[in-house]
């Protein structure tokens, strides 16, 4: 999984190349499960899931995302271009 | 008067809410190159055409010939892709100028619906536009072979939302 962060006023772009299994695993399933129960409010562009996901469901989603990597490798999952010039991209 | 390739690229780019710089960045070329294509001073390299067509949501044929392809199409059974290879694309342009593009594998959306999620479960920048979309109905349309732009909303507060299935 590739995460690209470009913040406003900074000439540096952060490229993170992380193993998908590191981001989509049982621990992150637990975090997703907790986060979906209590979404936080922020002032930036954000995507949030308000439906409460149970732990087994979150694990199933994570398993599926790991599987997706094999047939949709490199596909951009999320691309956020903020009006102030900041950018965030998450590629599978 | 027939529309030229450059004019078509410019029109499609604007339709997708992209700037020349954004299109250039995604294609790995300079913004000047895109400007030259649009002003008929040069043509895109043949190797770039598939990526350019994909970014502009048209086929290479449609990009080159300008044949009008409806944004929403009914695909016969024989030509349909399996659900696993389809994507649900959500594009949101909000009043502040933030652009959010989400590409979800359709199989993942189906799984979410089976878990009881709905359009309202997903909130982007606090936009309420997604709440009004019945994803179950969208899924039913896709299963019958309807593809392309399925939803376009211009909400009263200025948000623009499009949902595509490809």
Find the count of extended strands of chain A (DSSP E, 2+ residues).
5
List SSEs of chain A in N-to-C order. EEHHEHEE
| Cα radius of gyration of chain A in angstroms | 14 Å
Percent of residues in helices of chain B: 25-40%
Mean pLDDT of chain B equals: 82
Low-confidence stretches of chain A: none
User: Fraction of residues of chain A in helices?
Assistant: 25-40%
Report the structural category of chain A. alpha+beta
Structural class of chain B: alpha+beta
Chain pair sharing the greatest interface = A-B, 26 and 29 residues
Low-pLDDT runs of 5+ residues of chain B are: none
**Element order of chain B: H for helix, E for strand:** HHHHHEEEHEHEE
Mass-distribution shape of chain A: globular
Oligomerization state: heterodimer
Number of domains of chain B: 2
**What is the topology, as strand order, of the major beta sheet of chain B?**
1-5-6-2-3
Strand order of the largest sheet of chain A: 2-1-5-4
Question: What does the overall shape of chain B look like?
Answer: globular
Short note summarizing the structure:
The complex is a heterodimer of chains A (92) and B (166). Chain A is built from three helices and five strands, in the order ββααβαββ.
